[in-house]
Amino acid sequence: MGGAGLSDREQRLLSEIEAALRKDGAVDRSLRTLRLSTRRHLWEEIRRPHAVLVAALAAASLCLLVAGSLTSVAALIWVSAGMWLATLLMGFGLLRKWTGRPRE
Q1: CA-to-CA separations, 37 to 20, 30, 33, 41, 42, in angstroms, rounded
Q2: Per the domain annotation, does 63 fall within a domain?
Q3: Looking at residue 35, what DSSP letter applies?
Q4: Range of the domain at 79
Q5: Which of 29, 82, 84, 92 has the most Cβ atoms closer than 10 angstroms to its Cβ?
Q6: What is the number of structural domains in the chain?
Q7: Does some domain include residue 38?
Q8: Portion of the chain with pLDDT greater than 70, in percent
Q9: Does a structural domain hold residue 74?
Q10: Could you tell me the pLDDT band of residue 70, with boundaries at 50, 70 and 90?
Q11: Do the beta carbons of residue 49 and residue 97 sit within 8 Å?
Q12: pTM higher than 0.70 for the full model?
């Protein structure tokens, strides 16, 4: 931070607060391992549907559907159906994001 450091009184108060928090083992452990902002940011990036990913899933599911139809392999058709369902769900999430509606 760009200003002057803590005064002696503030430093002493901070040390007392830290000492009191360290006495509680659960609080001390959670404070030492706390990286909430990084984890939350990463989780939000994973959860957020991206247009490129939705388009790639749509193209892949269409290719699998065509391949399954031409070869009559049931597994390809079922995988295609599952990918299409995931594509639709992610597409609806993307549409909600673009329209500004919050998740409930």
Answers
A1: 24, 14, 12, 6, 9
A2: yes
A3: -
A4: 50-104
A5: 84
A6: 1
A7: no
A8: 74
A9: yes
A10: very high
A11: yes
A12: no
